[in-house]
Amino acid sequence: MFSLHSKMRGYSYFVALCVIVLVNCDEIEDKCNFLDSKLQPNTFRLLSKSIIPTMAGSVKGDAGKIGVIGGSIEYTGAPYFSAITSMKVGADLAYVITTESAATVIKNYSPDLIVYPYLNTKYASKIRSLIPKMDVIVIGPGLGREPETVHLITDIIQDCKNLGKPLVIDADGLYVVSKNTSVIKNYPCPGVVLTPNLREANRLMDAVSKNDSNWYSYWGDCVAVLVKGEKDHFNTNMTVYSWIATGGGSGRRVGGQGDILSGALATFYHWALKTELCKNESQAQLAQSVAAYAAAKITRLCNYKASLEYGQSTLASDMITKIHLALQSAFT
């Protein structure tokens, strides 16, 4: 693991390696485990830049079709923040599957989102038919914890598991996992990234009865965990791809910030998988790590830039207005 402000040993070697990655990943197929050293901060920055697609010659959908499953009568902002961020980062389409009570509200937030009022057991077959059209799915923002919702989301995760659909699970989606930890156990690659805050991470840790530092290994090789906080900790069984991120951000921990991260992560996740940074058995884990790093970096920068302007008054909606500037600052 590393601190983004720590001294980078082996800097020259890894920069040289990443330049090769950017030119032609096929040439370093046998080096995709990056030998016996952990990746360095600058390596993640360069790999993050390498996954961003060019817009020239693309057609609608090439840059990603992101699904967000969440929302309830109480929480309409969370799925909106996640979905609109996925598009602001660069995805072409964002679908929101939400409750009937939340759908009209979310549609009024933005005409850019495709909103389905199907988050109900009576529409289970409709949800099942929509899942294949989505490249990456975020499950959890604003779900609530009603027993019927928990049951429905468990079934949806199982459907995604059967399809091998890449998932980002956040917020109340993590509550569902804590109540049925086996639902993502041995989830196939390209896998799942869980994004708990410290309180949610402790609940998951207790649920799997793993109180040591490797509790996240319970779910298998294709499930990674990004624990958000003052420092962001990314944990995976492929320890060479684990990291700790600091820097950026502010003391303002505003509601909706985690939803912004989940939407950004979904888009970066799709790009990293599509880029195929390394065509070997660990390519999915590397994609998860690079995508999570990019999402954490962007979220921290958005928070920092918004706080410079709004200070204590910073809101999640202010952070969204800074996404373009954050992308330019981080990856150009």
UniProtKB/TrEMBL annotation:
GO terms for biological process: metabolite repair; nicotinamide nucleotide metabolic process. Keywords: ATP-binding, Lyase, NAD, NADP, Nucleotide-binding, Phosphoprotein, Signal. Its cofactor is Mg(2+). It catalyses: (6S)-NADPHX + ATP = ADP + phosphate + NADPH + H(+); (6S)-NADHX + ATP = ADP + phosphate + NADH + H(+). Its EC number is 4.2.1.93. Residues 1-25 form the signal peptide. GO terms for molecular function: ATP binding; ATP-dependent NAD(P)H-hydrate dehydratase activity. InterPro entries: Carbohydrate_kinase_pred_CS (IPR017953), CARKD (IPR000631), Ribokinase-like (IPR029056). Residues 43-330 form the YjeF C-terminal domain. ATP binds at residues 249-258. (6S)-NADPHX binds at residues 142, 197-203, 259. CDD domains: YXKO-related. Catalyzes the dehydration of the S-form of NAD(P)HX at the expense of ATP, which is converted to ADP. Together with NAD(P)HX epimerase, which catalyzes the epimerization of the S- and R-forms, the enzyme allows the repair of both epimers of NAD(P)HX, a damaged form of NAD(P)H that is a result of enzymatic or heat-dependent hydration. Belongs to the NnrD/CARKD family. HAMAP family: NADHX_dehydratase. This is ATP-dependent (S)-NAD(P)H-hydrate dehydratase. It comes from Helicoverpa armigera (Cotton bollworm). The gene is HaOG205644.
